[in-house]
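Researcher: Batch entry, complex prediction.
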Amino acid sequence: DIQLTQSPSSLSASIGDRVTISCRASQVISTYLNWYQQKSGKAPKVLIYAASTLHSGVPSRFSGSGSGTDFTLTISSLQPEDIATYYCQQSYGIPRTFGQGTKVEIK
Amino acid sequence: QVTLTESGPVLVKPTETLTLTCTVSGFSVRNPSMGVSWIRQPPGRALEWLAHIFPNDVKSYQTSLETRLTISKDTSRSQVVLTLTNMDPADTATYYCARINIFDDFWSAYFLDYWGQGALVTVSS
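Model: Structure tokens for the complex:
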């Protein structure tokens, strides 16, 4: 199985800060990497797919990059509504694993 | 409007079989670019992918649960069913179904673009 390791597990940042979350795969997965946002008590929502494609309706402050084994989700200017847990998911191998999540809080 | 709705028991006993139904609307499970996946999330923990089924009936399962999981679909009812046998308290979780949106046909790579609200299942005697 492909393991996805996210870092950090949690972070605290101020409104307007640039936030970066890392996701590292245990093997090469090309660009078959998606990012989801999950707010408390809600179902996840897709933000980015294929490593860098912004899903329809997602604010442009979210961006994704990377290929191979190392990927990054960036929030260019943190907003109060971005408080959530973020997950990466690979769509290269079976099973389609998720990372362990990164919780983003406001400082 | 695309919607997915999970239904099933709220409480199951250890060793029982869980059957969850995902009823979809706003898209067809016959659409060649779409399918349905099941994901679960134990309280306070991370998401865990469980299984998927494509319109051509290709199915895949979580490795650690493969002997206990079955996914199937009833196209006429627009439903996808997940069964998990021999339930254990460790299977207590919110179970989600989600629509698969394929972005790479060759690799069947996809993202999950619509999710149900989730169904909390507790395993306890």
